[in-house]
Amino acid sequence: MRRPFAPLASLSLVAACASDPTVYPSLAPRPVEKLGFEEPAPPPAAPAGPDAALDATLAANAQQRTTAARDFDRAAARADTLVRTARGAKVGSDAWIAAQTAIADLDALRSAYGDTIDALDELARTRAAALQPAYPALDQALAAARATARSQTTRIDTLGAALPGA
């Protein structure tokens, strides 16, 4: 038995193959492809509002830094005197050992000052982890503390280089 719809089905299949072979999709860039792959500019950061607790912590840290820097400066003056005394002395003499000990004491005092920088770094890391905006007073305190630490390192290096056998 023949099916009456068979010719109709074959006719629809032939019609599907009868499309125009000269018409191709456009290779021109689409509008979305013209935008590029750059990341969009981030929105400007909101200014940090006053933070009384952080300001109090920064004030306490500033006091600690001042005390540590003052202790370092006093010890550095003493070490400078001992190094000048040891310049003409032999390596291993009492004057040389006293100067070396004074320089070692400076390293310990610089480490105490470094602890205050670590506390500031921890405050900055905590704020960054919480996605809080930068706090200008904290940034200024960090910059000043790091500059002081660099100057302390330079002073220790200078005193150490002035000793014989260094």
Keywords:
166 residues; mainly alpha; 4 helices; elongated
Describe this structure in words.
With 166 residues, this protein is mainly α. It is built from four helices and no strands. The longest helix has 36 residues, at 94-129.
Unreliable residue runs: none
Q: Biggest sheet, open or closed, and with what strands and sense?
A: none
> Helical element count?
4
State the distance separating the first and last CA atoms. 112 Å
What integer is the average pLDDT?
87
Helix content, binned percent: 55-70%
Strand content: under 5%
Overall shape: it is elongated
In short:
The protein is mainly α and 166 residues long. It has 4 helices and no strands. Helix 2 (52-86) packs parallel to helix 4 and helix 3 (94-129) packs antiparallel against helix 4.
